Amino acid sequence: MGSLEAATVLVAPAPVVTTPPAQHKLLELKASYAPAAKSVPASKPKPIKKKLAGGCSGYVLEDVPHLTDYLPELKSYPNPLQDHPAYSVVKQYFVNPDDTVSKKIVVHKSSARGTHFRRAGPRQRVYFEPGEVRAAIVTCGGLCPGLNTVIRELVCGLHDMYGVSSVVGIVGGYRGFYARNTVDLTPRSVNDIHKRGGTVLGTSRGGQDTAKIVDSVQDRGINQVYVIGGDGTQKGASSIADEVQRRGLKCAVVGVPKTIDNDIAVIDKSFGFDTAVEEAQRAINAAHVEAESAENGVGVVKLMGRNSGFIAMYATLASRDVDCCLIPESPFFLDGKGGLLEFVEKRLRENGHMVIVVAEGAGQDLIAKSMHFADTHDASGNKLLLDVGLWLSHKIKEHFKRKPAGFPITLKYIDPTYMIRAVPSNASDNVYCTLLAHSALHGAMAGYSGFTVAPVNGRHAYIPFYSCTWYEQEQQEMAAKATRMHRSSAPLHL
């Protein structure tokens, strides 16, 4: 244990300055001691080093950057919430500076305490005055239920809790920073957007030009950036946070992770997932009705799940009408003993109908081999997937056509992919999105930056961008997701 502590980099907590607030200009983006120039394309800036702190019994804190790490003279102010009638009556509302959240809660008695993240929530001191804040919100990547709810709660939370009146929306994803105009966001303008699907700000893939984005941040006087998006988007936010720090800007960069697939192993759940599972039930119910109503009826439903099968698996377990669920984490084969086609035939002979649910990322290796397809990628760097639902339907039909005695089947293929992700979020996700948004803005106001916010083992935490599983090795990620799936489904049998 001593060797671990000796090798750990100790970082002091952000200093609290108690001097009375001076009169500031509206925005002070540039540090007075380091008036950094704008984009310099000569060399790529080095990523910010990990911020680690060690403690007894193998305790390690994976801390998030703070503005005072590179602006040590930055002043702090009492949190306006202490005088807010809705919050001041609640005892112990502010988070203790030493509160952390354990990354792993199942341990042996001899295990080290392990990795922890900083707990999310409001602090007693903040590093922005309400009048100086100019916040920007951007949505990137694919659609997901709850995007508009997160936007709404960021705007309303900043206004209602901290008195921030200057919030803008970046139109059309990352490109909007330097290619489109912004739109002003007020509590009135976002009042009912949570009742709609999609994102009122628009979205796009790619367009990540870090230097141009940070130039725009400086030019527009933005000092809080809230980025809502998935894998590529959060990597882009990490680059923006690094460049902001390199230039010495007083600007907090905060991520809200968005992935309808629920495939971030370090967090409990991603927003929009509950809604997606609920909507998937409609497609499964329709497939079951079709299959049950025909002789040897087969219903095939393809659901979202590029690299993970959480939507397919949870929808299957909730439905109870599904006979077979195919997910990317579990390889399968078609022909021969123990193959999928043998199982389909056996099920039809026993029950007279069956329903198959398949995640979009399942069986991609089988399809690629049969079609000799070369890998291609979209603007976000995601591998373009072949339609496993159509391919599987074709293979099942071919199999039964080849039966010498004749085995007529009726197969219906349903693909609700884009219907599922385009709907408004349900009640559960609306509450969850509110908690995410509030945790994000509390962190930004407290001076933290370079983090994504999400629940870890039931507690919302600030997770450094580099600690998201998107940055881990693929095998580690798959193993973690497989463990979560086993934990969720082991007691249940279809």
TrEMBL record:
Binding-site residues for Mg(2+), renumbered to this chain: 231
Enzyme class: transferase
SUPFAM superfamilies in the record: Phosphofructokinase
Active site (catalytic residues): 261
Localization terms from the record: Cytoplasm
Coiled coil: none
GO cellular component, one term: cytoplasm
Example GO molecular function: ATP binding
Domain Phosphofructokinase: 134-442
Catalytic activity: beta-D-fructose 6-phosphate + ATP = beta-D-fructose 1,6-bisphosphate + ADP + H(+)
The keyword Transcription regulation appears for this protein: no
A GO BP entry: fructose 6-phosphate metabolic process
Pathway involvement of the protein, from the record: Carbohydrate degradation; glycolysis; D-glyceraldehyde 3-phosphate and glycerone phosphate from D-glucose: step 3/4
Cofactor (UniProt): Mg(2+)
Cited InterPro entries: ATP_PFK, PFKA, Phosphofructokinase_dom, PKF_sf, PyroP-dep_PFK_TP0108
Main location: cytoplasm
EC number: 2.7.1.11
Activity regulation behaviour: Allosterically activated by AMP.
Binding of ATP, residues: 142, 205-206, 230-233
Stored Pfam families: PFK
Keyword Signal: no
Subunit structure: Homotetramer.
Family: Belongs to the phosphofructokinase type A (PFKA) family. PPi-dependent PFK group II subfamily. Atypical ATP-dependent clade 'X' sub-subfamily.
NCBIfam families: PRK06830.1 (NF005301)
UniProt function note: Catalyzes the phosphorylation of D-fructose 6-phosphate to fructose 1,6-bisphosphate by ATP, the first committing step of glycolysis.
Name of the molecule in the record: ATP-dependent 6-phosphofructokinase
Species this protein is from: Eleusine coracana subsp. coracana
Organism lineage: Eukaryota, Viridiplantae, Streptophyta, Embryophyta, Tracheophyta
Gene: gb24640
